Amino acid sequence: MEQHPLLSQIHPNAINSLRMVHYIDKNNTVHIVSTFIRFGVGTSIIDNTSKGGFAVAVNNETGELQGVGRQEVSKGAATYFEHPNTHFKFKGFIIPYFQEALNLVKEFAFYFPNRIVGWDIAITPTGPLIIEGNHNPGLRGSDIAYGGYCKHPLIQEILEEIKK
Q1: CATH number for the domain running over 5-163
Q2: Are 45 and 52 in contact (CB under 8 A)?
Q3: I want to staple 131 with a disulfide (CB 3.0 to 4.6 A). Which of 12, 120, 141, 144 is the partner?
Q4: Which long-range contacts (CB under 8 A, 24 or more apart) does 69-76 make?
């Protein structure tokens, strides 16, 4: 698989994948709760944050990187405003084919019985490609990238539903 050349400018050694988390509400409406992109570091071919990569939140409306990369605490808790190897600045970068990736997740949301799924999406030169859907998406990464999930209105809705 080949990633989009604009993403290779940021980190060429890994397929830097999007994680899009969807939630299906009680009315069967699909919401994208959060999106972040993971980047590998150094010569690593792995972008996963548990393996030393880091995540940058993505604006769900525009596909723009939100400017701050965050590493897991267990890996050093570094924050980045640019990629540590290529010095590519995140702020203002727009993910290619972002709207198509959103549409793909919304289309595939009903193929899983779970109401919350985390989708790993590669952005290739010709568009988005699903790598996998995670029935247990590990919301810690989304929480870190989003800057605190408990502030998110859809998470509040989910928590209220669970309480009932």
Answers
A1: 3.30.470.20
A2: no
A3: 120
A4: 69/39, 70/144, 70/145, 72/141, 72/144, 74/50, 75/49, 75/50
For residues 44 and 118, is the Cβ–Cβ distance under 8 A? no
What are the respective helix, strand and coil percentages of the chain, to the nearest 5?
Answer: 30, 30, 40
Domain boundaries, the chain: 5-163
pLDDT in tens, 77-133: 889 999 999 999 999 999 999 999 999 999 999 998 888 899 999 999 999 999 999
Dump pLDDT digits (tens) for 44-79: 898 887 788 899 999 999 999 998 998 877 787 889
Element (H, E) at 97: none
DSSP string, 39-69: E--TT-S---GGGT-EEEEE-TTT-BEEEEE
| Pairing between β-strand 79-80 and β-strand 116-124 as defined by DSSP bridges | unpaired
**Sheet of 18-24: strands edge to edge?**
79-80, 65-71, 54-58, 30-39, 18-24, 116-124, 127-134
